[in-house]
Structure formats: C-alpha cells, structure tokens
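Might you be able to check the backbone structure tokens below? Thank you kindly.
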Amino acid sequence: MYKKSFYIKNPVWNNAFSFEKRINKELYVADLIKINNLEEIKIWEKVVFEDFNWELESCKWLNNFYEIEWNNKKVYLFDNHNHAYYFWYLARNLKVIWDNNILYHIDEHSDMRDPEKYLLKSESFDLEKVFDYTNNFLNVGNYIIPAIKEWIINEVIQIRNESNLFEYINKNQDFNQSIILNLDLDFFQPDLDFIDYNLKKKVVLDIAKKANVITIASSPFFINQELAIKIFKDLFS
C-alpha cells in the first residue's frame, strides 16, 4: 500500500472537512518511498488538506511519504496524522512490534476522538483493509482510539505541554513494553515557542532512541511545512 499516489474524491476521511463549502473536492495522498538523504525531502504543490480557519486554507505538502532508517529503526514521515495508524500495522506485519505497545504521543492535540466505525481484530491483519480504513474512515483527530480498541496500543502517554515534558524527564522510565513514538511536528509551531525548543528536542530524541518504530506527521493545517521539514531535519539528521 502507498505504492502509488491517488486522490480522495468522496466526502470521507480528511476530505469530509467543509466538503460542501469547498470548490476543490479532492485531496492528494502521496506514495511511500525510501530515502537515505534528508535533502531529498522537498515541498510539493498538491493539496493534501483543506478546511476553514477564518478563511479557507489549502494546505500543500510533499510529493512523497518517506521511510527513513535512523538508529537502525524505521521512521515514517507523512502529512496528515491518521496515516500513522497504517504504519503501526505495517510495523506489526514486519514483526518490528506486536500488540500491547506504549504509544508516546507528542502533539499539540490529543487526537483521541471516536470514529464512526472500528476495524475488527481479524481485519487488522489484512493490510489492504487497514489501508482502506485509514484513508476512508479515519481523520487527523480520531485514529488512536481504534488502535487501543484493537489492542495494538495498550497505553497512551500524552506529551502536549511543558509540564508533560518535565514529567517525562523526572520520571524513572521502566520500558517493559515495546514503544511507538508518534510525533506531530505541530508541537514545534510558533504559538508553542514559549516551551524551550531544546527541551522538546531532548525529550523527542530520548524517546526516539528507545522506540521500536517512529511515526511523524508534518500536519500541513497546523504548521508551516517549510518550518516542519526544517525541524524534522534538525531532529533526525
């Protein structure tokens, strides 16, 4: 899956946001490629998210999703955060993780809303069904609860503010389970600059070094994409 780019044309997934108000009725979903050099990451011209924030914002991203090897583990970089759901199941399919993982969710938002439909446990081993569910039923705010109900996630640790960062640093972490780092680069957007950048970076990299797999969203609607990619390169160069 994600072998070829495509468009979502129906009012589903992230395309459901303000669908009736928008002139553009389709969103681009990129294909996945492996890269070794972060300089291959470039801004593209396809609309991947649209919604109203006082006025219509048409958000563009890259021409690809990216799989990157970092510290002998896989990092998946993509635009909208619901795609993380698919990559968790891909990691399980590759036996990088199994069930009952700890999810470290570093994000400006909780992403813990309920979707209208859940995937059955038996369906979750079929990556085609996971792919369809990710791209036709989930959106940027409701992809974590389904993973909990399906047991791939056992515990969610939310890191969304300065207090959460210090709690992580001050707590003696006992990692008896495999770990997924799920980072949204909007945690580095300018409105949150009152939180020290180096503090954020320290926590992100500490968890990243302990994680079994890393999923990262650039969140086009919530942070300038040139800034997001600059931060990603600083973190994982």
